[in-house]
Amino acid sequence: MKKSNTIYLVSNGDYRDTACEVCWPMQDNTLKDVRKAFTRIGYKTQVVTKYDAKRKHGFITRQCDGTEVFSKIDPKAPVVIVLSCWAYATHVSGPLQTHEGPKLLLANFDGTWPGLVALLNHAGTLDRLNVEHSRLWSESFAKDEYFMDKLTEWCRTGTINHSMSHIVKGDKLKLSRAAEKFGKELAADIKTNRRIMGQFDPGCMGMLNAVLDPAKTGAIGMPIEYLNQSDLLAEMDLISDEEAQGHLNWLIKKGTWFDWGTDTFTELVHAQVLTQMKMYSAAARFFERYGLSNIGIPYQLGLVRQCPASDLVEGMLNNADRPPVKSPVTRQVINKGKPIVHFNEGDLGSGIPQLLMNDIYERKGMDPETTLHDVRWGREWEDKYVWVLLISGAAPPQHFGGWKKANVYRQPAMYFPKGGGTCAGVSKPGTITWSRLYEANGELGMDCGTGEVIEMPDAEVQERLDKTTPVWPIANVHIPGYDRNEMMASHMSNHITIGYGDILDELIATCRHLGIKVRVAGDVRKRFQ
Question: Residue ranges per domain, the chain?
Fold first, then answer.
């Protein structure tokens, strides 16, 4: 593009003004850093999203806001979505679908201010919508040589080409006969008996990468049962205080630690957790009533205004060792001794791999627990790049070593005004398989690989928590050959699914027999070549 062209900078943000107000100072600093970087290579910029003194921020917070902003930009002009905090991709994805000019997603790389998480959400959403775009990230912007080289490339050509040498396509991989047989049998069972996925109110988290085409999921034997948040609330009203207290008593007897307080506006109180226990029973009832294989509750935007957080509930559901819930119809315990597989934030891109991995683990007699995490941040530690994988509470306590190592804190008031407990802990060391399903270019795809949860000194773990969100569960994960630039260049979501043990061969084989295109990322790809 010509240096005479103005590059338009857009600030996309959260739906909630309270969060946007807190995040605006960092966004303002990020905009200044970005403008300096463009100035350094001779390009002029204009910030088109202005600070609003009444709202105390300058973010886009609705899709209609995004539509208005883009209506004032030349449709062929270069635009940059500048991200320094969590943001709903749906605010700008519609305008970006029809915008003809070069499009760049640009984020800071920071744990406390997770623009990188928003970038991966936006990139996954645009890939889902088949919108061409480029992505770029940095910790120091104009001081970052890699960043400046790629920014210059975008300014000159309108695109950025990151190396994809860390990825290999699954159809080129050689698997053992045992893995092929395993995958063929499991895929046949899925297509014959189906795996019905219960998804509450898809899209309400601002992630269209979490919303998949039901025609495509049904074609691989995984039809979707669309559920409603209001029906979940109605079912919660049918759960007695006695039943809810019984679940809480079970957790306490197991050794779960609760950070109890007295101020419901800032601390964790009994009434919040009792409501969560009712949601736990209600979710189990839905699982049985609809014959589901898994379930996903997104705690936005309706539930956040109506009840405490779903995250402790989700960690309980994902754990094989959990309080028994009896069916009101049969009086039998629902899915006794097994997880009720839950995909956090209603993200089917994790729901499908969690379901496949759970099936594989059960058939192989391994611990069946799975979870998704945010790709939250990362940095070098002892000559390894170690990712901070972090989520708001849905990780199963088995990943920490059991309920005695699970801590329940109040969710941050900025995002969770009605409180509720997290399901926090530090994931134990061990080999993991990771995965992510996505939809792009009209097809379903699965990225996957292996990694290792690293055991770290308490001080290092605490510093990582302090730089992110200290009341949430954390997994410190090294994925050889899938470090910062590799993952940020190619990962198809802000989420990543993990489970313990190496089941990569079986996962690849199952996906191939289901007709899901597979890519293996990181150094583990070499073992198949």
Answer: 7-157, 171-528
What Cα–Cα distance (Å) separates residue 124 from each residue in 75, 347, 374, 488? 22, 12, 13, 11
Could you say which architecture CATH assigns to the domain 7-157? 3-Layer(aba) Sandwich (3.40)
Dihedral sign computed on CA atoms, order 486, 492, 493, 495: negative
What residues are paired with 135 via a beta bridge? Answer: 105
Closest CA to 434 of 359, 390, 497: 497
**Cα–Cα distance, 187 to 172 (Å, whole number):** 19
Asked if residue 188 lies in contact with residue 513, where contact means CB atoms within 8 angstroms, the answer is: yes
- As its CATH architecture, domain 171-528 has Alpha-Beta Barrel (3.20)
Give yes or no on whether 7-157 and 171-528 have one common fold: no
68: left (phi over 0), alpha (psi -120 to 50) or beta: alpha
The DSSP secondary-structure symbol of 211 reads -
352-371 pLDDT tens trace:
999 999 999 999 999 999 99
Contact of 448 with 349, CB cutoff 8 Å: no
Tell me the pLDDT tens digit for each residue of 298-309: 998 889 999 999
Q: Which residue has the tokens 């996957």?
A: 448
